[in-house]
Amino acid sequence: MKIDTEYLQRCIKALDMAYEDLQKYSTDEIRYDIYRSAVIKEFEIILEQSGKLLKKILKPYFHTSKAVDRLYFKDIFREAGLHDLLELEEVERWLQYRDNRNSTSHDYGVDLANHTLSLMKQFIIDANRLVSVIENNDT
């Protein structure tokens, strides 16, 4: 069964474009704030979609679908590493992305937003790589 990654790819493209446009403005401009918010929101959406789609890839590695459904986000990525779907370094970054996302949902400070922005170049690379992993692993 082919897993549909179209929405995830669209979100990654939106993130990439918003991040690129963000670079055009100085931090004291309102458009910077608008694009920063868009980047952070797409980051959050991509994280959630990535976990959901990766869970589908993991189902053949478990004895029941319910066992996979019980996995928490970080466990999904750890299992992906255990089954050689992702490299260890990638798994570590995804766990860091999740920690950052959990922080952004509770603290909307500028420092945290800036830290999130500092992750975006690598996050976009990792998200695109994950799309390849998903598309190349028929379940």
Report on the structure:
The protein is mostly helical and 139 residues long. The protein has one domain (6-135): Nucleotidyltransferases  domain 2 (Four Helix Bundle (Hemerythrin (Met), subunit A)). 75% of the residues lie in helices and 0% in strands. The chain has 6 helices and no strands. α1 (6-22) runs antiparallel to α6 and α4 runs antiparallel to α5. The protein is elongated and about 55 Å long. The N and C termini lie close together (5 Å). 27% of the residues are buried. The mean pLDDT is 91.
State Rg: 16 Å
Do you know the CATH topology?
A: Four Helix Bundle (Hemerythrin (Met), subunit A)
What is the CA-CA span between the terminal residues?
Answer: 5 Å
Number of strands: 0
For CATH, the homologous superfamily is named as: Nucleotidyltransferases  domain 2
**Level-2 CATH architecture:** Up-down Bundle
The count of helical stretches stands at 6
Instruction: Kindly estimate the percentage of residues that lie in beta strands according to DSSP.
Output: under 5%
* Count of domain modules: 1
Uncertain regions spanning at least 5 consecutive residues: none
Largest sheet: none
Q: Specify the CATH class.
A: Mainly Alpha
What does the average pLDDT come to? 91
